[in-house]
Amino acid sequence: MAKLNQQKRDNISDDKFAFPKEEKEPLNDAAHVRNAIARFNQVEGVTDAERDAAWKRIRSAAAKFGVSVEEKDWRELAHGGKRTRTAQS
């Protein structure tokens, strides 16, 4: 994943961030999309409505860059989602 310095980050349009108001999780290439998915639950101070909108942007960017996303909804991620495994599974 290419490191974004502040100048490059400033040149990314708001619609290319999962969370544009916070300028969190850029979606400018496949590596950043995968990173946005991995870090999705770490974003703090956002509402469920903002998460819904961010997830829509992530899924759109994933399709554009050929990133496979199994989860249909952000609520399926890590905490209580399909990828969580218990000791018995």
Describe the structure.
This protein has 89 residues and is mainly α. It has a domain at 15-76. Helix content is 37%, strand content 7%. It has 3 helices and 2 strands, in the order αββαα. It has a two-stranded antiparallel sheet. Residues 80-89 have low confidence and may be disordered.
Tally of alpha and pi helices = 3
Which residues sit in consecutive blocks of at least 5 with pLDDT less than 50? 80-89
Cross-sheet strand order for the largest sheet:
1-2
Q: Which structural class should the secondary elements be placed in?
A: mainly alpha
How would you sum up this structure in a few lines?
With 89 residues, the chain is mostly helical. It is built from three helices and two strands.
Keywords:
mainly alpha; 89 residues; 7% strand; 37% helix
Map the helices and strands.
Blueprint: H1 6-10, E1 17-19, E2 24-26, H2 30-39, H3 48-65
Antiparallel strand pairs: 1-2
